[in-house]
Write a structure and sequence with these properties.
Layout (H helix, E strand, L loop, with lengths): L2 H8 L16 E5 L2 E4 L4 E4 L2 H4 L8 H13 L11 H13 L4 E7 L2 H17 L7 E5 L8 H6 L16 E4 L7 H14 L2 E6 L3 E2 L5 E2 L2 H13 L3 E5 L23 E4 L11 E6 H5 L20 H14 L2 H21 L5 E7 L2 E6 L8 H12 L2 E2 L6 E4 L7 H17 L1
Helix pairs in contact: 3-10, 4-10, 7-8, 11-13
Bound molecules: pyridoxal-5'-phosphate.
Pyridoxal-5'-phosphate binds next to helix 5.
């Protein structure tokens, strides 16, 4: 039996309607920007495997550190114990996080990172005897697939079976510059009429909404209003974190800093699953009490898994290195030059870029998961490029370590696509 047949026997894949989906492609190896398939074909990973492997797949600096850690301390309960990898990670991460972040709470993935962010916001008020129980979120946001995360996501098109169990959420549009005043006045009205505990947002780039970008000044104003009202600002940097926007975190573009931050994906450089929810001293202090019930009674078995912490430390060491910072600058420039080249093409519209994230829309009408989208995906794969169009949006979010030659290959396959569709 080949891998596909064995896969189909017992496996249920994420985000997949198996009755109508093509069979999964067996991948046997990954190195740098390349995914190697069982049949010998190769694919350039233009989305860093959902924005995780930002320092290239199987980066030897990171795998070496993790392998050594695995020989020494594999796993230990983090409730009542601590260890060097967790402590060192806290020290290294605090150095690059916005200055007000002080405490780290470990979890397993992006959804649990935001789930805990929401719980922190709600319990922050509950602990102070307040009845604030409503979350505020952006329209078309995506924060994950657990219940709290689904509730605040505005893009949960297939969440019908669960909606009646959601927490209460109000939504505002993203600020685009021209609508900033309108959004802020809408926000002020909602705040004055509702018990808003917190505001959760993907800062500057909404990934799942097809790399929709918004205005930093507008977001800064929204954060200011929320903070004046003591609504807990929860930045979901699961996608935007760790250098992708051109700064360490998208929150670095705003003067008003989040009270809580949710991190995952590139946190562990694509090696091991882990999430983190960080917060300011003010949030932490609202849980610090002689009363045990005021604590955050949330805990995952694999919290602060030592090899995962080690991968994260190694990832941060690379992120702050001169070499990676130069590569980020080079990718930004390269995308700008490509954008200049295609900007007047009649099929290209809504071009946008922040840091190494580059996106544009194909000027054709199509459904998010429809047949044409599948043809675009096939075009890329047939040409050895793994890009995952979101509806009519084509975007690149490649590893920082991608070479200019590899980038040129992605650009040229995109240009072919513009002629073909
Ligand atoms: C902004 C954002 N938040 C949360 C999540 C959920 O992360 P995970 O898939 O690790 O649960 C994602 C995943 O794509 C995301 O992009």
């Amino acid at each position: 039996m080949n891998l596909v047949t064995r896969d189909q026997k017992h496996l249920w894949h994420p985000l997949t309607q198996h009755k109508i989906s093509p069979e999964a492609l067996p991948i046997v190896k990954a190195k740098g920007s390349i995914l190697y398939a069982e049949d010998g074909s190769e694919y350039l990973d233009g989305i860093a495997s959902w924005y995780t492997a930002m320092y290239g797949h199987c980066n030897e600096y990171i795998t070496g550190k993790v392998a050594a850690q695995m020989q020494n301390l594999d796993q230990v309960v983090f409730s009542g114990f601590t260890h060097e990898p967790a402590v060192k990670l806290s020290e290294e991460l605090i150095k690059i996080l916005p200055g007000n972040q002080q405490k780290l709470f470990f979890n397993d993935n992006g959804s649990t990172a935001t789930e805990i962010g929401i719980k922190m916001a709600l319990q922050y008020h509950h602990n102070q005897g307040s009845s604030r129980n409503v979350m505020l979120a952006f329209e078309e946001g995506f924060h994950g697939d657990t219940f709290g995360a689904m509730s605040v996501s505005g893009l949960s098109v297939y969440n019908g079976a669960f909606e009646e169990h959601f927490i209460e959420v109000l939504r505002i549009p993203v600020p685009l510059g021209e609508n900033n005043e309108e959004v802020v006045s809408q926000l002020k009205k909602l705040i004055s009429e509702n018990n808003i505990a917190g505001f959760i947002y993907e800062p500057l780039v909404q990934g799942a909404a097809a790399m929709k970008m918004h205005d930093a000044a507008g977001l800064n104003e929204i954060l200011k209003v929320c903070k004046e009202h003591d609504s807990v600002c929860v930045a979901d940097e699961v996608m935007t974190g760790f250098g992708k926007t051109g700064k360490y975190f998208a929150s670095d573009y705003m003067e008003n800093k989040p009270d809580v931050m949710c991190l995952s994906k590139a946190l562990t450089a694509g090696l091991l699953p882990m999430g983190l929810t960080t917060c300011s001293q003010k949030i932490y202090d609202a849980f610090y009490d002689d009363d045990i019930s005021k604590g955050l009674f949330h805990g995952h078995t694999y919290s602060a898994n030592p090899p995962a912490c080690t991968a994260a430390i190694a990832g941060i060491e690379l992120l702050v290195s001169e070499e990676i910072q130069q590569k980020i600058k080079a990718i930004i420039k390269s995308h700008q030059a490509f954008d200049e080249k295609i900007k007047d093409h009649p099929k290209v519209t809504n071009r946008r870029q922040l840091g190494v994230i580059y996106a544009f829309d194909l000027n054709v009408k199509m459904e998010r998961y429809g047949n044409l989208r599948n043809q675009l995906f096939k075009h890329f794969m047939d040409n050895g490029i793994f890009l995952r169009p979101l509806g009519n949006t084509i975007y690149i979010l490649a590893p920082f370590t991608i070479t200019q030659l590899e980038l040129n290959k992605i650009y040229s396959v995109i240009e072919d696509l513009l002629e073909k569709f």
